[in-house]
TrEMBL record, chains A, B:
Keywords: Acyltransferase, Transferase. The lineage of its organism: Bacteria, Pseudomonadati, Myxococcota, Myxococcia, Myxococcales. It comes from Corallococcus caeni. This is GNAT family N-acetyltransferase. Pfam families: Acetyltransf_1. It comes from the Bacteria. Residues 4-152 form the N-acetyltransferase domain.
Length: 152, 152
């Protein structure tokens, strides 16, 4: 396997990142989906990178963006003041699946979360993504919660 | 119903907040649970209040803390750069349930999230909390996702 590295996203990654995020039937079916780097995307990117509690991670192989996820570190009073990490927008390039890139991406995320003092990592995954649920279960995640969402 | 108001938590609310968070069998069963305002709780509180993307909300009635929740605002590239709000640690004092305090608390949270430009609000709720799931469904939340967690 060619060497796979993980780093923070840069503004120049945005076109590749949007392509990755759109490389998914469920995501494409959602309102507001776009591959265009418009002002709302630019603003969101700037907010993510300016916020010390957010990290947008890029997996790179042979100079190409092949995977991504976003981490948010959240302080909380519960469980004795436990800090948690939330994972959002996990993607691996569809033609590269089955090569354990996703596993390496998630292991990297768990290391980052531990280094930030998190005692828990959590995510929600669309109930239609059965393969994703098996993948996360293999990594030690337990589907103990209902993930509930509401448009505003 | 005596008037119910919502505001940001203050350090002097911490003992009441921890009591509220502990007023729950599922929470009590979790590792690290404590009612004592120790240094980890103090640090978590300071981090929450210092972070412009976190709000710790307190519901007050007759000068007493009767409800709480935490909001985290998360910028993201998905769905056209949609900002989302995450809700954690929702509690209503157990002897005051059935008085629509929880509903007012969540309506207040949704208003705050909208005012912050969020297009989506989300939460995870323990699968054993059937009443909570019905409550959130009445407020328009859809259990479309699995909520998966892993200790670190």
């Amino acid at each position: 396997m060619p060497s796979l590295t993980f780093r923070h996203a840069k503004a120049t990654d945005l076109p590749s990142l949007l392509k990755l995020l759109a490389d998914d039937a469920i995501a494409q079916s959602r309102t507001g989906y776009t591959e265009e780097v418009g002002p709302a995307i630019q603003t969101a990117f700037e907010e993510i990178t300016a916020d010390p509690n957010n990290e947008l991670i890029v997996g790179e192989q042979d100079g190409q963006v092949v995977a991504t996820l976003q981490l948010t570190y959240i302080p909380g009073l519960g469980r004795g003041g436990l800090r948690r990490a939330l994972v959002e927008a996990v993607r691996v390039r569809s033609d590269l699946r089955g090569q354990r890139i996703g596993e390496a991406l998630m292991v990297d995320a768990m290391e980052r979360a531990r280094a930030r003092g998190c005692g828990l990592i959590q995510l929600t995954t669309d109930k239609r993504r059965h393969e994703a649920q098996r993948f996360y279960a293999r990594l030690g995640f337990v589907a103990s919660h209902e993930g509930m969402k509401r448009p505003l």
